[in-house]
Amino acid sequence: MLCALASCSSGYRAPVEDRHTKSRSAPPSVYNVQRGDTLYSITWRYGLDYRTVASANGISSPYTIYPGQKLYLKKKAPSASRSTAVKPSSTQPTPGKSSATTKAVPRTTTTSSTRSSGKSAGKPGATVSTWRWPTAGKVTRGYSSTVHKGIDIAGKRGDAIVAVAAGRVVYAGAGIVGYGELLIIKHNEIYLSAYGHNYRLLVKEGEQVKAGQKIAEKGSSGTDTVKLHFEIRKEGKPVDPQKLLP
Question: What's the whole-model pTM score?
Fold first, then answer.
């Protein structure tokens, strides 16, 4: 009792757990698509390659999925390798409530409650010619292949977050635990980048973005400090962003 009181009076605070690690649990064999999911957000959550899951379930570009559809994540789907899609009957699903504040861009697509990510997302290819830093600030935590799949960059609320390379926004929302308000951008068939804990999103799913374009404002959604959590995935697997950034 005295020890407990002493701990309280000394100002001791329990450490904050790393929810990025906890959010990537082992994928289930079968995943039931929820409203607001995209193929990219589902595969990002479980550290999978979207192309592998799409192929296993007989889903082709633009990778449209529907609420209630069963996706096979661990092995090939039965019945000619095609997943069961519960399509809308006479009307499209009502779009989910979005927290994004959008900018006008030349090409956009309509976002439904469970979303397609556009016919193409950046030019096909294996490389990105030029990467750039997503925001200014000090890197407060680096990449670890086992416990921290990206880097954290400190700053002030409202600091600009920019696209590290050209591409298409394939997810915008807060549906993945541990990331807060999150953007995922597909740069080509190999690379995806993610920007977490934003205060405000400035682009929406389906929008094409340019390298260096402001896409969000830094915040603390889903965490207790203002920072950008930034990740890059290559063929579905996390890589150290600092080995690619200039």
Answer: 0.69
